Amino acid sequence: MPDPYQQLLDDLVAEQQYLDEQLADIPDSVWEHDTPCRGWMVRDVIAHLAEVDDNAAAVASGVASQMEGGGRSADGLRSALQDSSRQMTRLQLVDWWRAARQRLQDALRPLDARTRLPWAGPPMSARSFATARLMECWSHGLDALDGAGVEPIHSDRLQHIAHLGFITRSFAYQTRGLEPNTDPLRVELALPSGADWVRGDEGAANVISGSAVDFCRVATQRIHYRDTELSFTPGAAEEFLQVAQAFAGPPGEGRAPQRR
Fold first, then answer.
1. Comparing C-alpha atoms, which of 25, 66, 74 is closest to residue 48?
2. Average pLDDT, integer, range 37-48
3. 121 and 13, same structural domain?
4. Predicted pLDDT at 71
């Protein structure tokens, strides 16, 4: 049977390659377009991915003992490196991103999936570390594609992001200084292929259901939960959607609701 950790790394490569290919043929001028991430152009999004992949590669290879910069939510301020990267040509920026991705793969492939790595929050397993990189590529990719006017095509790789969103339930409360809600919760999603993805206690009174795309967009704070087609029971299920945060670090600003 395939090694689940190596398959995850294959999925990370596929997600990165997908975004790369979607942006490959757009005019250079479009890289200067604004994105839904306040203050970030398309090129800034890619610079962020390159910067954090470089940092992640250094951590995974043992060169750095912790994350150095990067890792902010999509509504965070630009880093100094992002600002300086605006002097790069498009080709220089893409070459940096591709090289950073390769360094990350080279560092992650030899690790045991259970190896603990330091990051912006508590240390995490190499498996969760890789999942977080896939999550960031997908979620920041949504911003870049939006700025470029490209409609995203989603895949069942979203199952990794949905898993991360589900298991970070307590963290999402804690990062806001709140006591985690431990009421049993069940999440029932449809992946882009139509396959079912289910987590949580069968028979739980608190249920979230709908598309994996919607759930992952909420968990990465790319949409307000009220602007999705997700169904949820009142109480703990809706409360979780209000605080969901799959990324490390402090809470982001999120996205304001667009409909009442």
1. 74
2. 94
3. yes
4. 44
Q: How far apart are CA 189 and CA 15, in angstroms?
A: 20
180-238: pLDDT as tens digits: 999 999 999 999 999 999 999 999 999 999 999 999 999 999 999 999 999 999 999 99
Here the tokens at position 126 are 């190499």
Which residues span the domain enclosing 216? Answer: 158-243
How many CA within 13 A on the CB side of residue 44?
22
What is the dihedral sign for C-alpha 26, 40, 96, 16? negative
Chain centroid to CA 201: 25
CA distance 49 to 98: 10
pLDDT higher than threshold 60 for residue 67: no
CATH of the domain at 194: 3.30.1050
Residue with tokens 């604004």: 34
Residue 153 domain-assigned?
no
> Is the same domain home to 11 and 93?
yes
Ranges assigned E (strand) in 106-154: 116-117, 124-125
pTM of the model: 0.92
Q: Is 43 exposed, middle or buried (0-12, 13-18, 19+ CB in 10 A)?
A: buried
